[in-house]
Amino acid sequence: MSATATPNSRPDTGTRRSIRESVLNVAFDMHSDGTWERTSMRNIAIAAGVSRQTLYDQFGDRTGVTRALLGRETDRLLDGVDQRWRQVRENGAAAGDCLAAAMNQLLAASHSHPLLREVLTGRDPGLAGTNGGLGLAGVITELCRRLGYAVGTYGQPARPDQLRAVEILVRVTLSYLLVPAEPHQQARIQIEHAARTLLPAHPRGPRPAAEPVPADHPSDREREPLFR
After folding, report:
1. CA distance linking residue 190 with residue 197, whole number of Å
2. pTM, whole model, 2 decimals?
3. What gap in Å lies between CA 168 and CA 194, rounded to an integer?
4. In 3D, which of 125, 102, 131, 101 has the Cα closest to residue 113?
5. Nearest 5°: phi and psi at 12?
6. Highest mean predicted confidence (pLDDT) among 63-77, 93-107, 197-211
7. Are 42 and 52 in contact (CB under 8 A)?
8. Which of 19-33, 35-49, 178-192 has the lowest mean pLDDT?
9. In Å, how far from its chain's centre is CA 78?
10. How much is the pLDDT for 132?
11. What is the dihedral angle through the alpha carbons of 64, 108, 98, 79, rounded to the nearest 10 degrees?
12. Residue 126: closest CA among 226, 21, 19, 39
């Protein structure tokens, strides 16, 4: 029997993943250049090099594509914030400095990514009537959970007062996206000041090489998707 796929055969997992990434890359470009609202599933399929039926099978409709894109880009945003505070902490920074660096990363990423900025301010484009607003609550929850590792003592969970400080700073940072400060640099300065006030400096040395990452850290387990 020939190994060639028949017209009715389904793409394998690798092929489906490749198709999905191609479509999401096209959607990302369209959201960035402002053409998304004026395009159709047919044009998306042509740009991604897939059939319209494949596009419908994978995503359902344009809202499905947007949701999938939000999920991917939100994961990338969270991973970037995570990576940033870890880089700062490896250099012996205090908890407040780690948190300030993470929030500045959040500001920078959202300013350069219109779709994420809409999510983080609660204005989800193309998601009206689809419970898209739940995305913002999910992002806040995940940010606070991850940043709890940034302020806790090695081997110990963050204290309740530290977790409250994290949530306060996350919400303050998001407020600067909702009502931008001018100039942009002023927002960064105020966020850094707030972080150091909420979490006074207690210098911490570089992380010991043998210290394990907590078992429930998002890098060690599969996360529940924020967007379905």
Report:
1. 10
2. 0.71
3. 9
4. 125
5. -75, 175
6. 93-107
7. yes
8. 178-192
9. 4
10. 42
11. 30
12. 39
Q: Which two tokens stand for residue 206?
A: 């570089």
Evaluate if residue 15 carries a pLDDT over 50.
Answer: yes
Do the Cβ atoms of 45 and 54 come closer than 8 Å? yes
- Helices 52-59/13-33 angle, 10° precision: 90
The Cα angle at residue 57 between residues 53 and 62, in degrees rounded to 5: 85
Matching residue, tokens 């060639």: 4
**3-state secondary structure string across the chain:** CCCCCCCCCCCCHHHHHHHHHHHHHHHHHHHHHCCHHHCCHHHHHHHHCCCHHHHHHHHCCHHHHHHHHHHHHHHHHHHHHHHHHHHHHHCCCCHHHHHHHHHHHHHHHHHCCHHHHHHHCCCCCCCCCCCCCHHHHHHHHHHHHHHHHHHCCCCCCCCHHHHHHHHHHHHHHHHHHHCCCCCHHHHHHHHHHHHHHHCCCCCCCCCCCCCCCCCCCHHHCCCCCCCC
**CB < 8 Å & 24+ apart, contacts of 179-188:** 184/107, 184/111, 187/107, 188/104, 188/107
